[in-house]
Amino acid sequence: MKIISLDETVSLKRAIDQGTENQRKSVERILEGVKTGGDQAVRHYTAEFDGVDLSDPAVTAEEIAAAYERTDQETIDVIREAIANVDAFHKRQIQQSWFASEENGTILGQKVIPLDAAGVYVPGGRAAYPSSIIMNVVPALAAGVERIVMVSPPLEDGSLPDIVLVTANELGVTDIRKIGGAQAVAALAYGTETLPAVDKITGPGNIFVALAKQLVFGTVDIDMIAGPSEIVILADETGKPDYIAADLLSQAEHDPMSSAILVTTEKDLAEQVSSEVSRQLETLPKEEIAAASIRDHGAIYTAASEAEAIDAINRLAGEHLELHVRDPWAVLPKIRHAGAIFLGENSSEPVGDYFAGPNHVLPTNGTARFSSPLNVEDFTKKSSIISYSRQALEENGAKIAGFARLEALEAHARAVEIRMEDSNGKTDSNENTENE
């Protein structure tokens, strides 16, 4: 790995793949096709792009039962334990509605309401991603979303991987569709004859899925536009070179665009980690991908002091941040920007990816400066509650009308004053209710 003296230019920023003009036009064509053509268009695009002709893409109970028969019990038990961990973590995030009253009869509050429906996109292809299902579905369930639709591109035989079906079933997802790509995003966003539209779409996918999510945003909400995966490690003299190298490579194997960075005050450690990365790469199954990531987007930065190193960590605002330092809890308060923070040498990034409980859908490309991991709040919305009594209106009405006139909104002012001028002494509905 490159070893570089730290300077002010350190950054994780990489050009995010925005797709080619032809790809964007293709996605726009698919979205419009599904918007106007519904189920028939979805079947057409599934046959065109996935090579599968499905008259009904809905997964059946028989398919799920067969998936369980082919899945060993140990795997099912691990999935169940991971779900329990993630569920317990996200239930701590649940927000409650609240109300506050004043002596003059004013009642203000906030009503927290779950979304009606969410769509979860699960990538397909050669690999299956049960962890992605868990991380996207659990916060929606904890929020109280009543209808969750899962979509995933079918395999060549028109099926979905067994572990995908088992994981979805363990979560209680009953509406599973064998559709993928931009056509799946369009179906979720606009709805079809057999698939009512959802309110939010989450989950990763290829460039066509990413473009489709960008284009339907506004019709529905989406989780985020995620860039390639990244890891940043802060290490002092206590850091173990083999541990650090393994963790850097755990992200580098994702994608040639993935970024793996070490920041350390120890030049000897920097040299040792660089050598260890080269050694471990030789036996890595995805050596070519990881090597490209390390070569093009990996680096070891040496800092003159801990303060300089932490400043760089905050400027990087990494998706995953590991603290391989003597006292990670002492360093934690100094960290302002990171998607997920892993404290100590035993808290390797994959612990959070799969099992510990926090969500692994994280802000990338420096966006941890202003955004957060996927969470329960992402599947809720809030309504403000305002209830003014007659007394409160009389106390504040003139001020409100005056404020309206500051903005030259006379009708706003009159809407308040007409109530203040009411000489009948009418009481508001809350007071009437209390007197009944």
Automatic annotation (TrEMBL):
Molecular function terms, GO-annotated: histidinol dehydrogenase activity; NAD binding; zinc ion binding
EC number: 1.1.1.23
Keywords of the record: Amino-acid biosynthesis, Histidine biosynthesis, Metal-binding, NAD, Oxidoreductase, Zinc
SUPFAM superfamilies noted in UniProt: ALDH-like
First-tier enzyme category under EC: oxidoreductase
Pfam families: Histidinol_dh
Co-factor note (free text): Binds 1 zinc ion per subunit.
Catalytic reactions of this protein: L-histidinol + 2 NAD(+) + H2O = L-histidine + 2 NADH + 3 H(+)
This protein's record includes keyword Metal-binding: yes
Binding site for Zn(2+): Q251, H254, D353, H412
Residues at which NAD(+) binds: Y121, Q183, N206
Active site residues of this protein: E319 (proton acceptor), H320 (proton acceptor)
NCBIfam families in UniProt: hisD (TIGR00069)
Family (UniProt): Belongs to the histidinol dehydrogenase family.
Protein's name in the database: Histidinol dehydrogenase
Species of provenance: Salisediminibacterium halotolerans
